[in-house]
Records
---
Amino acid sequence: MIPVVTPEEMGAVDAAAPEPTEVLVGRAGAATARAALDLLGGAYGRRVVVVAGKGNNGADGRAAADRLRRRGVRLEVLDAADLPDHLPAADLLVDAAYGTGFRGDWTPPAAPEGAAVLAVDVPSGVDGLTGEAHGRPWAADRTVTFAALKPGLLLGDGPSLAGTVEVADIGLDVSGARAHVVEGADVARWLPDRPRDAHKWRAACWVVAGSPGMTGAAHLAAAGAQRAGAGYVRLSTPGLAEDPGAPTEVVGVELPAEGWADRVLDGVDRIVAVAVGPGLGTGDAAAAGVRALVGAADRPPVVVDGDGLTALADDVDGDLTTARARPGHGPATGPTVVLTPHDGEMARLGGEPGAPDRLAAVRDLAARRGAVVLSKGSPTVVADPDGRVVLVTAGDARLATAGTGDVLTGALAALLAQGLAPFEAAAAAAHLHGRAGALAWRRGLVAGDVAAHLPAALTELPED
Ligand SMILES: NC(=O)C1=CN([C@@H]2O[C@H](COP(=O)(O)OP(=O)(O)OC[C@H]3O[C@@H](n4cnc5c(N)ncnc54)[C@H](OP(=O)(O)O)[C@@H]3O)[C@@H](O)[C@H]2O)[C@@H](O)CC1
Ligand SMILES: [K+]
């Protein structure tokens, strides 16, 4: 996992560093110079303009300039506070105006025509916490950031202005980071090896979703569970007797339209995880069923999505979502519920979509609900009530198509059923789901394709 540290947290890391700032600035300058040389494809005779501010970000840029000059690069260092209307011609512009200490607005003259842009730590003008661009920052081809990623490189305008982001180690200890970006190697580590005596019940899950006449979401959730490695998928749509459209290998079990939660709880003996909510409808019976199931003391771990989340809207303090899973089912401690809201559902749950500090907003909701919260978006953010946060950058705009959320819900249930703890299951599901979308077609993608590509996403994981 790649650590993500807010500007404020970075200040504390910096204050705790045993080395003086000049030493850190020297290393930051060296890393910047290396990235510059890489972008330039050489040194001698290349023209580089460094725009440097008066803080440490500017100091990093000046330190890089010294190194580059010694390599024969033709350098001009310009003061960010006193820029000409037109910047001199250059092969590379190094943006070291402002870093995490930026405030206000930054509307510099245009970058020299044809010059590559290298941002130091964060593109100047981009808020290191929120990713919001203030003014008209230069769009970088590459950003070299120090010690850890900053949220502002991953959120808001950050990703489109930062270009390719590289984290340079400058000797700071970021082991206390509370947020991380998930990588394939993490997911590989979390997934259990398939045991030799694997039998279908080992990773059995039950999808309770859909409503009579509206079975698409249920089918997609079931397919997501199948393709993310569930050994057995049971599917029930309350009030629906026959479901000829369900995926072939799914085992249909009939549930009454009302009072179905008791029937589920009676039948979960060998079921390791339950998914509830997609397409269930917002009628009273559906909502009562969700509440009874989620609030039951003896249920397996459960992932709640879609209409299931609406049913939990009033459970503000998490009385239902903190119900303990029964012994032997799910983790002995920690949360046993995963909530997977998009922004609208997040607001319904009392969360704050669009909050400037998105990581804190998701973390707060998880703490209040006593549940893992997976906030869908770009990136997807997963928080545990204990304060841990991961960002999943694997997905892209292609996933913003109807039904992909249902696939994610099913995949998440399958990972819970394979024994992952809720936080890791949510992070892994979001990663695999994002990769499945990326591995599928560039255009014309439908949700079923995402499910169909989950095995490819699992297969491409590095060997643990
Ligand atoms: N963390 C670490 O451990 C390490 C961090 N390092 C580096 O330090 C960077 C953070 O440095 P920093 O704190 O000095 O802040 P920085 O971004 O240079 O800006 C603050 C200065 O700019 C000014 N200023 C701001 N906005 C302005 C505006 N719109 N227009 C005009 N002026 C404006 C502001 O002025 P003031 O508010 O004081 O008036 C202040 O003087 C970080 O991003 C990384 O690159 C590494 O060197 C090594 C280890
Ligand atoms: K910068």
Note: The mean pLDDT is 95.
---
Amino acid sequence: MTFSSSSAPPTFKPFNLALIQLGQIGPNKADNLKHARDIILKAAAGQGVAGTKPDLIVLPECFNSPYGHVHFPVYAETIGYTPDHQFDVTKCESESVKMLSSVAQEAGVWLLGGSIPERDITDDKIYNTCTVYSPKGDLVATHRKIHLFDIDIPGKITFKESETLTGGTTMNYFDTEFARIGLGICYDVRFPELAMTAARKGCQVVIYPGAFNMTTGPLHWELLQRARAVDNQIYFSMCSPARDTTAGYHAWGHSMVVDPMAVVIAEAGHEEEIVYARIDPATFHSARAGIPVTTQRRFDVYPDVSKGL
Ligand SMILES: O=C(O)CCC(=O)C(=O)O
């Protein structure tokens, strides 16, 4: 769903979140999908916070293929859904979408299915796309990475997603019975307007699948998430793949959940791990009451980025 037609957000209720810092992402897509499916079921059946089942499970960026611009065209799948086209699971050709839809239904959880390389049905362009499923297995939202990861830090890391990918053109969210949740993917976190717009449009929680690296990860992964959380007084979370030093891309890991006071309330190391967090609206409300920036903004001095969508 895009923000242009958004209505009032759902009442924010406590819920349990699980991030899967997925490992064993190799060249065989079928193996990647099987492993993801098994660990989603494990997360759903797991102890969670205080022994409770998670309400929402999150996978990392590019969970079904190795990460790199050369791999995207090879692994890309047609979802048959764009913001302008209705999704029909019976006509869906994507093995990844079919797996995610069925496992969300089997586990009875909301599932934010990381991201996959997606080939558009109409123009053949390739996107880095997040798909989200309800506990009934319905595909309720997609988000195509808006800001492509094109960086060049000499001697450290050069990456150019735009070699094979196209950037998305819409800002997206989904509503559950417990919160409105804003979407983005990895490099999108460096553009504060996106999370700011999500927060202004009623998202109490914003979650981005990501895969930072060994150069920018130690510097910016936590900093950016805490910044987005405290700027907007929202819960902010990113879910990474586990680090695999035999792969071409070495992910930083450290999947984390940050509360609206910028406290890191859950964090993984760099290996495969399931991280659970209790999302508590009391922290959201007390942050906004105690430091009332949400009502002190000076839109007479600077514009509101969320206006005019
Ligand atoms: O912004 C960064 O430093 C890393 C971004 C990234 O890895 C990505 O967009 O996939």
Note: Helices lie at 29-45, 72-75, 95-107, 192-200, 216-232, 281-290, 293-296.
---
Amino acid sequence: MSLASLVGGFVLRHWKAYASSAVMLVGVAVCSVWVPRKVGAMIDGLAAHRLSNHDLTIQIMQLLALGVAIYVLRVSWRIRLYGAAYRLGVELRTRLYARLSNQGPAFYQKQRTGDLMALGTNDIDAIEMAAGEAMLAGFDGTLTLVMVLGVMLLGVDWRLACIALLPFPLMGLAFWYISRHIHTAETDSLKRFSALNDHVQESLSGVRTVRALGLEKRSAEQFSALAGQAANASFNAHKWEAAYEPAVGLTLAAASTLTLGLGGYLVWNNQLTIGALTSFTMYLGQLIWPMFAAGWVLSLIERGRAGLARLQPMLDAPLSVEDEGHLDRIGDGPLVLRDVHFQYSGAERLALDGVSVALRPGMTLGLVGPTGAGKSTLLRVLLRQATPQQGSVTWGGHPLASYRLDALRAATSWVPQESFLFSASIAENIALARPGATRAEIEHAAGMAAIHDDILRFPQGYDTPVGEKGITLSGGQRQRVAIARSLLAESSLLLLDDALSAVDTGTETRILEHLAELRAARPELTAIIASHRLSAVVNADLIVVLKDGRIVESGGHEELLRLDGWYASQWRYQQLEASLDAS
Ligand SMILES: Nc1ncnc2c1ncn2[C@@H]1O[C@H](COP(=O)(O)OP(=O)(O)OP(=O)(O)O)[C@@H](O)[C@H]1O
């Protein structure tokens, strides 16, 4: 979509605001055009001694009234127009946010957070300016230009008007040349600002790592370099914008010279009065605004076009996970993966290579294997964050893709390896999965996740703020808050992705006991526990060992020990490690 159709469509939808602004603008233009005529008539009246003191006072009062009317109308129409234009920013931001929140991990793997943030702020600001400031200056400038030219041609002297207009085509040529450079410079400026934003976002998110590695100086140098590049790019755009001013100045100087030359000649030959020449010169002065407005509008339009060119691909980016399902209730029946193959884009080998597993409702699957074996990827397939290139996944007798994403998400609770806490209280963080949950339900879930006692020790208990603006929880505490969140959701599929890795074995045992109680109370709850620590999966109904994306062993704990493969050797190793730790 072009900027013109975007802004045009917006103006049509908000035509009342734009139309009332235009009416007020016409009022401003009429009043402004009237002033020089009045001044010219006053001068001629004074020169001819036709004006009495009383007449002069009345005329001066009328001029003052015109000035006040112009002021009031200008303020009112700006308020009206800006009041409408800011809504375009809100609309675009809402669209961008909605699109981004529906994108999956594959999209975010290719995009930089700081860049997306810059799009939502700087670039949309530029587009908003094109619908507000540019429309304002464009309307105002065009109307003033038409009226002033009309009066100059028809109301003062057409010969003067024609000669004064001679330099204007050259100015148009200069404007065209400058605006092309502004577009390039603005595109570069927006890109550089994004890069700077990205650096700030990344280094602030990783500030502890930056400090721990002593990288402050290097990070500051990188920031300084990026800030310098952003400033240079912005300066370059402003340099081009500044080129409008001399073009306007030169055009006006040439027009004034030509006018005074011809005007002087006409006055000398009694073909023009001094008052008319004064009016004409004042009108010429009134052309300064439309000319500056033209430059300003062109540069705002180029800025808006550059912003839209960066924003549009994000709004149009295909969803990395399509939501084309129609079923909104998960059917009864097993969760079945059949010959699932999945390869990340750009990866050289398959992350899942022919995986087949069937889980009856209520079963617990333990997913183990060396690092990089494909455990998290398998969970991502179940979450529909990754779509297998081959094979099928069905749940309750229907392919996963036939469910609506919100239905799937409501039925699934996922605790990722790195759990994220929002800037809110602990209670609010737990209740995210079920916003209407009572305090008793939140505390019950926290008890199941073995975090209740820790929470009571925090300064404000469950109301303690966490996340960026609150206290920092330990990795284990964060994991347990995330587990509490997932248990509160009461969904039918629980996915734990190495979610107990940061808790000690005693806490792990307590959580697993609570999970066993939960499964006894809710026999339909299916759980998949991916873990490096085998103690987390010993009681699972089925344990699957993944290696290089393939299932290399599967069975119950005892069965796998008897098999004496990777699982058995890993079990012995981990048992030995635990006994060494205990001694
Ligand atoms: N986003 C990605 N893009 C490309 N390759 C990826 C991506 N995520 C994972 N991989 C690769 O896919 C393979 C499986 O990774 P996965 O995270 O599923 O393993 P894992 O068994 O969960 O590992 P860990 O136990 O270390 O968490 C690995 O080789 C990994 O490097």
Note: The domain at 3-316 is CATH 1.20.1560.10 (ABC transporter transmembrane region fold).
---
Amino acid sequence: MTAEEQEQGTIAYVALGSNIDDREHYLQDAITALNQESGITVTGLSSIYETEPVGYVDQSAFLNMVIQIITVLPAEELLFTMLAIEKRLGRTRDLRWGPRTIDLDLLLYGDHQLTTPDLIIPHPRMHERAFVLVPLTEVLYKRQDAAFEFISAHLEKLEGKEGVILWKKAQ
Ligand SMILES: Nc1ncnc2c1ncn2[C@@H]1O[C@H](COP(=O)(O)OP(=O)(O)OP(=O)(O)O)[C@@H](O)[C@H]1O
Ligand SMILES: Nc1nc2c(c(=O)[nH]1)N=C(CO)CN2
């Protein structure tokens, strides 16, 4: 971490997904919970997108969105906090890529690259997922983040492939 990051925090992007019960409520509760953590401030929101399930397709449609945060937590601690919030919001792990009340994925943490047994940054599957890239591109654009050009190039490569967006609700 640079001295500047230690002082001002690191800009990070978190993907949210939900496909059980009151999906919008879970998204909102997760955002509130993250913002209430000391060392995390939510600074940007994408719209909410309804998306067809990808990977394991025999499940309900998801609501997905991406948020920008500024955090003074190291990446591993941020992940740990995200996993604790998932647990509080009733997340269970029964089936890989299966239904969930809330899923929180750490997409980008500044321009850091990291591979540990518990955490890979950038998220290793984000570039294949329209349900991540579309809202991420939206929030990067809104927040005028320099990563916009880079990520929107990935999005262009995905055009017409998978992760159909069914509808979008503006925030
Ligand atoms: N960038 C990351 N963000 C979130 N979790 C990560 C990341 N890199 C590695 N992991 C690890 O992945 C584990 C499983 O995460 P999770 O259960 O949310 O996976 P999933 O959402 O079912 O599938 P996917 O990882 O493909 O999104 C977490 O416990 C965490 O240790
Ligand atoms: N549409 C959509 N499909 C998924 C999602 C998701 O959030 N949205 N999450 C998955 C596991 O991370 C697997 N498939």
Note: The pocket of PH2 (ligand 2) is lined by residues 17, 51-55, 62, 64, 97, 103, 131, 163 (CB under 6 Å).
